[in-house]
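Pilot study result, target chain (81 residues):
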Amino acid sequence: MSRLLWHVPDAPPTRHPYRDTMLIYGGLAVVIVLFAWITGGPVVKALVVAVVFFVVASSWSAYRWRAQLAKARAREDTEPL
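Predicted structure:
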């Protein structure tokens, strides 16, 4: 009988977690502006929304990455030899 896993195991962090996160959110911000431009919406308003999105999302992710990396370092420091 198989068991269902309801959680995702922790993946190891990438080599450049901050840079990778900023690239993803930067790409999503560009998508916001492109979507407004293609649909004929207000591009300036979309640009403001994209900048706010990028800053808030990047700040939150940097906070979370810093906490996760500190937790991993603490675990390494407390492991018995």
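One observation from the pilot: The chain has one domain: 17-75. A full batch analysis is planned for the follow-on phase.
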